[in-house]
Amino acid sequence: MREAKVETVYQIPVISPAGKRELAANLPGEVNPHLLWEVVRWQLASRRRGTASTKTRGEVAYSGRKIYPQKHTGRARHGDIGAPIFVGGGTVFGPKPRDYSYTLPKKVRKAGLAMAVADRAKEGKLLLVEAFLGVQGKTREFLAWAKEVGLDGSETVLLVTADEAVRRAARNLPWVVTLAPEGLNVYDILRTGRLVMDLKAWEVFQERLGGEA
């Protein structure tokens, strides 16, 4: 029998011009570490360029001439100097260009994203923002805003916003990782300490969870 999906209502703080308020959200009540590992492994595999390449003994730039006679030399038998046992010779079973990506079910990817966000909400590390007041694209403006809301750089922050000016203002800070709403992913959530999203990014996240599998 299929297990029922267990969800928990989280009260997520929202920073708005009128002050702080809370938004109720249904997110997974339990986090499956192995499922998160599967999604991160899939993400990193998809990012691999797969361009590593080595030359076999047939590809190295050496003559194929036998280096000395087969017999009566008192030495071991050898063919050409491009053999793998010689320095500079070909490589045995070395890497060749390949595609490391593979398919992961959409339901698994969607569940992993929901669990990663739920984990940040459970730890009190998820913050929603209605408007970035005073941030017009300058780093000093974002620093002033961050200080006002309690972000002081003591931990890394994943900033997900549809406002390009805000992303531009924050991208030079070493403790901030910026993403557009469509780019929200499990790996970046887990490798940063806090998750900050504007309401547009939150809507995109909810649509991704509610879409057809």
TrEMBL record:
The record's listing under InterPro entries reads:
Ribosomal_uL4, Ribosomal_uL4-like, Ribosomal_uL4_dom_sf
Where exactly are the transmembrane stretches of this chain?
A: none
* Pfam families in the record: Ribosomal_L4
Protein keywords: Ribonucleoprotein, Ribosomal protein, RNA-binding, rRNA-binding
* Sequence similarity: Belongs to the universal ribosomal protein uL4 family.
What exactly does this protein do?
Forms part of the polypeptide exit tunnel. One of the primary rRNA binding proteins, this protein initially binds near the 5'-end of the 23S rRNA. It is important during the early stages of 50S assembly. It makes multiple contacts with different domains of the 23S rRNA in the assembled 50S subunit and ribosome.
Tell me the subunit arrangement.
Part of the 50S ribosomal subunit.
Q: Report the protein name in the record.
A: Large ribosomal subunit protein uL4
Organism the protein comes from: Thermus aquaticus (strain ATCC BAA-2747 / Y51MC23)
